[in-house]
Amino acid sequence: MTQVRGSHRRVALAFSLAIAAILIHGGAGVAQTERRERQAELPEQKPLVERELAAVTRSERGAGRRQLYFVGFAGFGHQAVFKREVQEVRKLFDERFGTRGRSVVLINHPSTANDVPLATADNLEQVLVGLGKIMDPANDTLFLFVTTHGVQSVLAVEMPYVGLEPLRPQALKQMLDKSGIKNRVLVLSACHSGSFIPALANARTLVITAARADRTSFGCDDRRQWTYFGDAYFNRALRTETSFKRAFDHARRQIETWETADRLIPSMPQMKGGEALRIDD
C-alpha cells in the first residue's frame, strides 16, 4: 500500500520498494540480540488469544439463525494507521452489523502489545480454529479483514524488533480450511492483494481486495485515520449500505474518483467468489 499522493509519485515508488525490501529480507538489519530482548518483553500470546476467544458468544447451533463473526488483522506494526483502521472497523461492525460479543482483533503496534494479541500467523490460526468450534458452520459467516502492506502473494506481518512470518495465499487458505468455517467474507487491504484471489475465492468465500494483483493501493500515510480503500469501503459505503457486494461497487467508484483527482495509477480493487453465500438477503 502506497502512502503518498499526486505529485509525489516518485516518493511513493521509493516507499513501495522499501516495503518490498522489508518483506523480502525480513528486517535483517535489526540486531538479533536486541530483537531477542525486545521479544522477551512481550506478553505470552496464547493467554491473550484465549482471553479474546473466551469473550466470544457461542452460536446457537440448530436455531437456524445466521450470525456474523468478525476478525480484524492489522499486520504492519511500524505504522498506526492500520491499527486505527482495524479498531474503527471492529467498532462499525459491532454497532451496525451485530458482531458485539462476536468480534476479535489482532494488532501489531507497540501501543497495544500488552493488551491485544499480536497479528501473527500463529495467532490468526488459533483464532480461526477457535471460532470454528464456536460458530454454526451451516449458518454463520466469518468476516476477516486484513489491512497491511503487501507485494505479490505476500501480506506484511511486521512488529518492531520481533521476527514474524508474512501471510501467503496458501498458508491463509490452509488456516481457513483447518478452522472448518465454510462461509467466509475476506477483505484484504494491501498493495497487490488481488494476488490472493486465485487461492482463496470460491462459491462460499467472497474475496474483496484493495488492488489488482499487479497494482498498488493508496492512503497509508501514518497521519491518516483510514487508507483509501478502508475509507471508501468501510467508513463510507458500509455506513449506509448493508450489502457487502453493493458496498464494494460504491467503494470502487469512490476510489476511482480519488485516484483520478490525484493522477495516480488506478489500484483497480477486485471482488470474486461468494456466489453461494447468503449474506445479502
Short description:
The chain is built from nine helices and eight strands.
Give your account of this protein's structure.
The protein has 281 residues and is α/β, with parallel strands linked by helices. It has a single domain (10-272), classed as Rossmann fold (3-Layer(aba) Sandwich), CATH 3.40.50.1460. 40% of the residues lie in helices and 13% in strands. It has helices at residues 9-25, 32-41, 45-54, 81-96, 121-134, 169-179, 197-200, 228-240, 244-261; strands at 68-74, 103-107, 141-147, 150-151, 154-155, 184-189, 205-209, 270-272. The strands form two sheets. It has a six-stranded mixed β-sheet, sandwiched between helices. Helix 3 (45-54) runs parallel beside helix 5, helix 4 (81-96) packs parallel to helix 8 and helix 8 packs across helix 9. The protein is globular.
Segments where pLDDT lies below 50 for 5+ residues?
4-8
Number of helices: 9
CATH class annotation:
Alpha Beta
SSE pattern, N- to C-terminal? HHHEHEHEEEHEHEHHE
End-to-end distance, in Å? 33 Å
Shape annotation: globular
Strand content: 5-15%
Write down the CATH topology. Answer: Rossmann fold
Count of domain modules: 1
Q: Rg to the nearest angstrom?
A: 18 Å
Question: How would you name the oligomeric state of the polypeptide chains in this document?
Answer: single chain
Q: What does the average pLDDT come to?
A: 89
**Reading side by side through the largest sheet, how are the strands ordered?**
2-1-3-6-7-8
Please bin the fraction of helical residues: 40-55%
Instruction: Give a count of the beta strands, DSSP E runs of length 2 or more.
Output: 8
